[in-house]
């Protein structure tokens, strides 16, 4: 778990109460070019303390936190909310089991940017990490279906969006980053970012992943898109 602050390296923290899970994720992640594991924690409270220590010492901070949901002392939902509040630049990717849709929904509401199943192939975990850093949406179709059914309707619906905002919502839900959206619509990346922010505000959502799930629920795209 050596530190690497060179340009382009994605720094990762792994939070899970099972040591064997952490060992496996660390062993694989450290073999992937461009990824480096900074550290690990056995629960949310320990994760927050480690982040506090790194920040106090002026050490590099993780770009992405892989966060288990069900842990002793402090679970993933509460830890996600606290980390997002204290370290808003860190992206939280939830590690989840198929039956944890309710907790995943709560974690997304708390500020998590994505999720990946614990039984996913290692390559998919890496893809979810990269997507989070790139501002893209990484959805597992099976979990997305469950999450969609649990979503409460926003107070202001799709009718509040302009035609361009609906178009951008679809591209976002298909996994497009701000740069991808800008390229497809021939607008600046800054304009794309502003549109995405306006969409989230109008729909009263807190993340791109929630917006993607809403697009699925409203039939704008399918979970397999």
Radius of gyration of CA atoms, rounded to a whole number: 17 Å
| Low-pLDDT windows of residues | 1-6
| Total domains | 2
Principal-axes geometry comes out as: globular
Euclidean distance between termini CA atoms:
35 Å
Q: What is the CATH topology assignment of the largest domain?
A: Rossmann fold
- CATH superfamily grouping of the largest domain: Response regulator
- SSE string: EHEHEHEHEHHHHHH
Which structural class is indicated by helix and strand composition? alpha/beta
**Main beta sheet:** 5 strands, parallel
The count of strands amounts to: 5
How much strand? Answer: 5-15%
Mean pLDDT: 87
Question: Quick one: CATH class of the largest domain?
Answer: Alpha Beta
Draw up the topology in text.
Elements: E1 10-15, H1 19-29, E2 35-41, H2 44-56, E3 64-68, H3 76-86, E4 91-96, H4 101-110, E5 114-117, H5 122-134, H6 141-150, H7 163-173, H8 178-185, H9 189-203, H10 208-217
Parallel strand pairs: 1-2, 1-3, 3-4, 4-5
